[in-house]
Design brief:
two-stranded antiparallel sheet, mainly alpha, about 50% helix, single chain
Length: about 130
């Protein structure tokens, strides 16, 4: 076994964890100061500002949302009634199905209905954790 590659791997894993931690801290700081900056932009009618080689601006995105007093079924029907039935599909949650499949595999109870249709796909990743 090449211990140098293993050392490099564990070193990179530690570096990745530290960077993810630092990134989360930065994201929280950004979240804490974003709203006051947006409020000031709105109060002063500012569209954008160039500072330190970056252009700061407010991005507007529109996202669909079901009205609070309506159900998912009512929303689906409205979409179909408006002629956009292509947006509606029957589906399943792949993470939930994978979780079920792991349970079924442990119990040895694989449904006949799944055979030839739903298969287990194994993924292997090299990982490390802090040794105790």
């Amino acid at each position: 076994m090449d211990s140098e590659r293993l050392r490099e791997f564990t070193s990179l894993e530690k570096e990745k964890k530290n960077l993810e931690y630092e990134l989360e801290k930065v994201k929280k700081k950004i979240a804490n100061i974003s709203q006051p900056i947006m409020d000031e932009f709105a109060d002063k009618g500012i569209k954008n500002i160039n500072i330190d080689g970056r252009t700061v601006y407010i991005e507007r995105k529109v996202w669909a949302k079901i009205a609070d007093d309506k159900t998912k079924e009512e929303a689906i029907q409205a979409i179909k009634d408006a002629g956009y039935e292509i947006l509606v599909s029957e589906g399943y949650n792949s993470q939930q199905l994978s979780s079920l499949l792991r349970e079924l595999e442990r119990s040895g109870k694989f449904p006949e209905e799944f055979k030839g249709v739903i298969e287990a796909s194994e993924v292997f990743k090299l990982k490390s954790r802090k040794a105790s």
